[in-house]
Amino acid sequence: MLGASLLEYYLLSSSVWVYAGVGLIEEAVKAWALILLTRRIPASGLRHGLVLGATVGFGFAAFESAGYAFNAVLTEQGLSLRELVSTEILRGVVAPVGHGLWTAILGGVLFRERRNGHFVLNGPVLLTYLGVSALHALWDSSHGIAAWVVAQLTEPGFHQSLFDLGYLPHPSEYQAELFTLFSTAGLVQVAVLGLLWLRLLIRSARRSGHHTGPQPPGGRPRPTGAPRRAGAPDGGAPLTSGHP
Fold this sequence. Notes:
Number of strands: 2
Helix content: 55-70%
Structural class: mainly alpha
Order of helices and strands: HHHEEHHHHHH
Number of domains: 1
Shape: globular
Largest sheet: 2 strands, antiparallel
């Protein structure tokens, strides 16, 4: 979390592309943390990656929520417990379809492509990283897009400043209602896309005969229905090993 904040501070400037940069940086930091924490765990396969990736994602979201809570509790009128609680409830509700989901998808592909205990950077991994970064960028920019759309509908003309702000400075009641509608619809669409991607990932693995659980020691998944070696647990290699 600290690494992502420092990279964003020094590398990104205020522009319409800032959300893309945030998505690329934060997803890369979470992927690096996942690889670092699990590099000595003798496990591979989609299921392990989904669980461990979601764990890292939720941990990142927890630290991020702490920062949002700190900002929410400090108001011009003093400390606001109401703002703190409402912010934490909202963050808790969206976390499963945010950081937790994105890192689960990336972790699943990372562990699915893992070979002989080594993570590899290949086409599927790179495309998945870019895909979850795009979902992240769309999620973060939903308020800015909603503000821009509302401004276009009610006050025609390009309003890049509204996109950068992410809100309407002095909205009318009608504009506020439209903003809430469009921003919520944007978040829901991004969440649905992520969930559909997760579902397709699992179904594709099952269809191709790959186990969503651990893979055998050779690094290649055992096709469904193939005979199991004597002494090997169902699903491939045991989860424990004598390796350090």
